[in-house]
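Ticket reopened. Same input as before:
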Amino acid sequence: MKAPRTQPRKTGRPLSFDREAALEKAMLAFWESGYETTSISDLTAAMGVTAPSIYTAFGDKKQLFLEAMRRYVGDAADLKKAFVLAPTAKEAVARMMEDAARLYTGDATPRGCLLASAAATGSKDAADVRDAAARERRVIRTIIIERIESDVESGLLPPDTKTSVLADTALAITHGMSILARDGADRNALIAIAQASLSGWPDHS
Amino acid sequence: MKAPRTQPRKTGRPLSFDREAALEKAMLAFWESGYETTSISDLTAAMGVTAPSIYTAFGDKKQLFLEAMRRYVGDAADLKKAFVLAPTAKEAVARMMEDAARLYTGDATPRGCLLASAAATGSKDAADVRDAAARERRVIRTIIIERIESDVESGLLPPDTKTSVLADTALAITHGMSILARDGADRNALIAIAQASLSGWPDHS
DNA sequence: CTGATTTCATATCGTTCGTTACGAAACGAT
DNA sequence: ATCGTTTCGTAACGAACGATATGAAATCAG
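Engineering reply: fixed in the latest deploy. New output:
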């Protein structure tokens, strides 16, 4: 498990392929078929790159997946900012769910959520990869909880608000939408679910 | 892919192991690690049965999983009956969710839902197994929708009730609870989510 | 132009995968 | 007791897995 090369070297033969584009294709392959159930052979076909080139550019399969997952989730600071800037916690969650509904039903991407499906299960050999995915999910959960707590402190939400229950319900809906999307639910159905699930929120207006 | 033997033969050497007990162990193994990511070697270890015996008793890996899945979901008629006998659709869904919360956090079983995780993703070779799991999920969905429609027709729910949205929201919550259970959420947290998600339901009382 | 460095394409490596031949062993039937 | 039938344990099958060894090709520094 050698360290992959993230920034280009000054000397030596240059990469013959677009590293970012190849990573994007790898992400889509993992998104479609999962971590363990996407083979190196699948990846070489999807990325248009030979196996040794994958290993020199990304390390090994595990590191490639982790990098693809980081690319999928994006920067957590962006999500954090969106939650802080939203007028209310409820509206922030609503936007997150609607973004998810769109993401899970995109025409150019696999259905559902990479974070919810690609490493949801697997062998013991891949336990660390599942843990990494769980860690990403936990980061999102923390961002949601903190925004809800903020609304409680500022009086936008009642003092007896069950912050973790509210956040976990939003997470459950979002993760559940991933499975429904894989089962064929269309975008409007997912958005309707998101809206319906928010009707139970305490409202400050 | 020979046909497995479901009922014992009158003649020939008898099975040296308990077929039902072995199937139970196989179910637990698939539940824990997923369909494709549970190897025959894993299954022989879990079931205490050699590979050739698995093949003579169950057919092949695919048939073994399908049989294990049928054992996991149980008889759809039982779920149907529970939904019909419940006083309201809302109460039926509440009980389903609380049963799920208990099932997903059992001490003697893996966390989460076999139906939601074991065949949620995978290679193209296993597409038919995922379809079979999706079919089981669809059966549950139909049962929920039919009970909601029944309440609308009998006046227990308002005529403009969005039956499919209500059902899909319940399914999303239940499936989402599976992922949260895998991430370590405890039983009370899941039950709280179930109850919170039902607060948005139109109530007839 | 030479040498150091890095990636290239080709051809594998050893391991594990799902699955099955094979002959011996254990049963019911006659 | 013998036969037909079925499962047994042992051993191994071809295929696919993740990952590399190898030497030629391509770049930069001097």
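Chain B has a mean pLDDT of 95. Chain B touches chain A through 46 residues (CB under 8 Å). Please confirm and we'll close it.
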